[in-house]
TrEMBL record:
Identification of the protein by name: Stress response rds1p
Classification of source organism: Eukaryota, Fungi, Dikarya, Ascomycota, Pezizomycotina
Signal sequence annotation: 1-21
Keyword terms of this UniProt record: Signal
Organism: Fusarium mexicanum
């Protein structure tokens, strides 16, 4: 519960519509194009999700509306897990995107951090954009694919941003390993494990390059068994 409360303190969600609007998701023609898995750059095939450098959000984060179901039928076996994860990923991506927009290379150098820090933050932002696309594709066409909310984060300088970044990466790894236990399909479990490995790399970079601490903490990381307690905090309509 401490982890859940702490993440709630990090991610302060503001309402983006009145109650009636929250019950009736609004989409757009641009968002509905995301139904097709090969629309736009494909994770694993496009370098966009590692090498993009720019202040504006990369695809698919430049399209923030929810994706409405395109056919009727029962939801996929793991749709709810992926929906919760996609909601959380929007919050995580938005954190890094705000960092990219707020700071620049000089901001971190003048604060005493390595001159590669801003570039690495952009790369992590790109990775998180790729996660958005992966999670969208994992949700079946019979289920809603969540869009973004508006997010506020308690950082006001490079140091407070990096502190929050480290915590978010630790929390991400923890609830992802917990979600693996909730997924029923082996393909879902494998995809979540692969994403958790990427989040761990982000965490290790932060611990070693930013804080100069030993990233080795034992033979196993923490598995948070109630991952939805964390993810539910990212759902503004709950």
């Amino acid at each position: 519960m401490f982890l859940a409360r702490a993440l709630h303190a990090v991610v302060l969600l503001s309402t983006v519509a009145d109650g009636a609007a929250m019950k009736i998701p609004r989409s757009s023609s641009g968002a509905q194009k995301l139904t097709y898995s090969h629309y736009g750059p494909v994770p694993g095939e496009s370098p966009l999700y590692s090498t993009y450098r720019g202040k504006t959000p990369p695809f698919p984060a430049n399209i923030t509306d929810p994706i409405l179901p395109t056919r009727k039928g029962k939801p996929g076996v793991d749709d709810m897990v992926w929906q919760n994860l996609l909601s959380a990923e929007w919050a995580i991506f938005s954190f890094y995107q705000q960092g990219v927009e707020t700071f620049n290379k000089t901001s971190f150098v003048e604060a005493g951090y390595p001159n590669t820090t801003y570039d690495r933050i952009q790369e992590i932002r790109d990775n998180e954009a790729g996660h958005l696309r992966i999670f969208q594709d994992q949700i079946s066409d019979t289920s809603l694919k969540p869009g973004a909310c508006k997010y506020q984060y308690p950082f006001n300088d490079p140091e407070s941003f990096l502190v929050l970044s480290t915590f978010i990466e630790i929390a991400s790894m923890t609830f992802l390993t917990g979600l693996v236990q909730m997924a029923k399909l082996p393909t879902s479990q494998g995809a979540m494990t692969a994403i958790a490995a990427v989040e761990t790399r982000h965490e290790v970079w932060s611990l070693m390059d930013i804080w100069n601490v030993n990233p080795f903490s034992g033979p196993s990381d923490t598995v948070f068994p109630y991952a939805n307690q964390i993810l539910d905090l990212t759902n503004v309509s709950s």
